[in-house]
Amino acid sequence: MKIYIDGTYYERENAKISVYDHGLLYGDGIFEGIRIYGGKIFRLREHLQRLYSSAQALALTIPLTMDQMETAVREAVRVNGRTEGYIRLVVTRGVGNLGINPMQCVRASVIIIADDIQLYPEEMYAKGIPVITSSVRRMPCDSLDPRIKSLNYLNNIMAKLEALRAGCLEAVMLNRDGLVAECTADNIFIVTGGRLLTPSPLQGALAGITRNVVLALAGEHGIPACESALAPYDLYTANECFITGTGAEIMPVTAIDGRTIGTGRPGEITLRLRNAFHAMAVSE
Ligand code: PMP
Q: Is 149 marked active-site?
């Protein structure tokens, strides 16, 4: 595997960054996770737009234009001969000194890793998964805005640990108002009374690329869909629930905090959207 760092390719064991990089010292940086299906990079432009918006919000100057970044990502996939897999695109603030001052970092660093993807077992899609609600809250917009896909995932990691301790793979995170935001690495949707509902980015959801595709697909399939404030009560009493993300695609959720959701099996609308999503991803 060849890993791109600032314009040069390194073998995996030699792909290293400085211990003075503020991405390491302070989590000062941003990232994207992108899928490759059948040799095509899924929604690359949307991922790049989110990356550059995250950078803009953090006053982080990416040393490549969006077009140059697109070329670099496509090249990293080609160099590695990848037709299926996952791209991790990271931009760190770069090398500085031991203080937090980002102005001391001369140039941001760009890292592109094109690797295998760890897929969830098919059986989980067939049965759905249980999730819990975490006690760790999603950050409010006046702190690290949850729309920024930053390298600081510690809240999400603490919530993930809570999920794992409870025997689950995902946890729902609430915002400071006690409303549902999303999961630790996935967005969340419910179906109630035939309507598809999902929290808005201002309520703490990352503007997930998969989430956006699902909202568009719902429109094409005549399923009414909109953003909505959701409390844990809305999750518990939903007819269907699923989570979305680049890795998971659409994963049915069949239990939340010990409450069975709907029939306890993946819902009909969930399955329709899952099939539609997968067909579109492999054909795009
Ligand atoms: N929420 C969080 C916190 C995430 O990290 C991710 C991406 N792994 C998502 C939602 C899903 O976003 P996407 O569909 O763009 O992968």
A: yes
